[in-house]
Amino acid sequence: MRGTSLASLGAVQLRFAPVLSAAGTTAVTLGEQLFAVVDALDSSGSLRRTLSDPAIQGGAKAGLVSGAFGRLDSRVVDVLSTAVQERWSSADDLIEAVERLGFDAVLASAQAGGELERVEDELFRITRSLVGQREVRQALFDPRVPGDKRADLAEDLLRGKVARATLVVARRAAASPRGRRFVATLGLVGELAAARRERLVAAVTSGSELSPAQLERLGQILQQSYGQDLQLNVTVDPEILGGMRIQVGADVVDSTVLAKLADARRRLAS
């Protein structure tokens, strides 16, 4: 999402923020309802095209929202009405924005309950624990399995072990991946949690364990590069054969052996 759509998302989030703050821990319910809206938009091409069409007056689109989603919490209907009156580069951007608002609501509920840091840590730990469990990762993303069954699998793995917000995110990631792998969605929401805590996250994948001295040095280098402290989420993956991959937001530095081999193959083929 870029340009006009990104600006529209920012405007809607700004208006939604005080609503989430007032909702406190119950904001998670608003998030779950927003996810239901995403599913409805994903399943209806005509509805999402109409609601994102800049040629249709905002008031008319807001009226359509009230008619289609009037059974939902009035706060959800209000934020949707606000969203559809903004300008979006594509229908997909509108849906992505509604999904982002849903994640914002879930994280706001965790923050209100003093569990935001816990949720951020749990999301990272789940992704790290799945590194060596290929069959589980595949099961959580298998399109041949109904979404509710994948969500139940995620809950079976995590029930009683994580915060409610973490469980809601995990169920959502499994039930409706929207083109992303399960761990990718968890990583995205982890970054949103870090941003809510006003911290950048550096996702580091290494072929071997890093020593405390190496972690400290890496943290210093990234701090100098970005001008602020970063949280290092380190995953060890022997399959990359050595080296390191670092991602901070859209910035990626890949010095793994696999990346170098792939680059060599491209050069030979050109």
UniProtKB/TrEMBL annotation:
Superkingdom classification of source: Bacteria
UniProt keyword Ion transport present: yes
Subcellular location as annotated: Cell membrane; Membrane
Signal peptide residue numbers: 1-22
Topology relative to the membrane: Peripheral membrane protein
InterPro entries xref list: ATPase_OSCP/d_CS, ATPase_OSCP/dsu
Sorted UniProt keywords: ATP synthesis, Cell membrane, CF(1), Hydrogen ion transport, Ion transport, Membrane, Signal, Transport
Protein family membership: Belongs to the ATPase delta chain family.
Role description: This protein is part of the stalk that links CF(0) to CF(1). It either transmits conformational changes from CF(0) to CF(1) or is implicated in proton conduction.
NCBIfam families assigned: PRK13430.1
PANTHER family hit by this protein: ATP SYNTHASE DELTA CHAIN
Protein name per UniProt: ATP synthase subunit delta
Organism of origin: Cellulomonas fengjieae
Phylogenetic lineage: Bacteria, Bacillati, Actinomycetota, Actinomycetes, Micrococcales
